[in-house]
Design brief:
7 helices, alpha+beta
Length: about 240
């Protein structure tokens, strides 16, 4: 009688179950990796096709009412005075830069004024943000700091016209300016890497100036070079809201 026979059967069953377990586990790991790669690829594709607010508004306006535009100009001048008081390096950006370069004013369909503010990566960035919020509120604006996107949004008291301040620094000392506040950049890193990072040389003072809202405003160096980065899909044309 072979007393090892039962033990051999038990060992064989264990090995078979072990192989089955690892086959199922490996299969599930590959499925998870495939779904992750698919989601990552779709996320990258969506981010790289970003077209700005005018491509996503549900009810875009082709012409912002004159009173709202005038309110926007007022808070734009007030904010410029605040930034100049603190000797900060700033420039027009995004749609406001297009407006300044094309017509010397806010584009008729634009919903806000965009200002890019350069801060030192070793400075107290959030202390600077708090200081600017306090000064803007002293001018009568409704002001909020948006933690997710890392920008200050100021609104005029009557028509709620909007102004955005975004903050940029050479975070890694590589000669490239990145958004240095907010959480969105860590989740949408592809978009921020390719469309929200630009050479620091474009913001080296003294900056060139152009007429905007009846004031002389600084703009980034090298003409529309920064816009080629921010609007890679349509920088060469006038991109209006849908239906305009």
């Amino acid at each position: 009688m072979n007393i090892l026979y039962p033990r051999d059967i038990s060992c064989s069953n264990f090995k078979a179950k072990n192989r089955l377990y690892w086959r199922i586990l490996t299969d599930r790991i590959w499925k998870v990796l495939f779904l992750f790669a698919l989601a990552f690829g779709m996320n990258c594709w969506i981010q790289l096709r970003w077209k700005g607010w005018y491509g996503t508004q549900l009810e875009p306006r082709c012409q912002v009412p004159d009173e709202e535009l005038e309110d926007m100009r007022i808070i734009g001048r007030q904010t410029q005075d605040i930034l100049d008081k603190h000797n900060m390096t700033y420039a027009l950006g995004f749609g406001s830069l297009w407006g300044a370069l094309r017509i010397g004013d806010i584009l008729p369909w634009d919903i806000d004024i965009d200002l890019l503010v350069v801060v030192d990566r070793n400075s107290d960035i959030y202390g600077t943000i708090d200081m600017l919020i306090e000064d803007m509120r002293a001018q009568g604006m409704d002001v909020y700091y948006r933690d997710w996107v890392g920008i200050i949004q100021g609104y005029s008291p009557i028509y709620k016209s909007q102004l955005d301040l975004s903050f940029w620094c050479d975070y890694w000392g590589t000669g490239t300016l990145h958004r240095c506040s907010g959480w969105e950049q860590y989740f949408f890193f592809v978009k921020y890497r390719f469309q929200f990072a630009f050479p620091a040389r474009l913001m080296v003072p003294p900056l060139p100036r152009v007429n905007f809202i009846n004031r002389s405003f600084p703009v980034p160096r090298e003409g529309i070079e920064i816009q080629k980065i921010h609007y890679p899909n349509d920088w060469w044309k006038v991109a209006k809201p849908r239906g305009c």
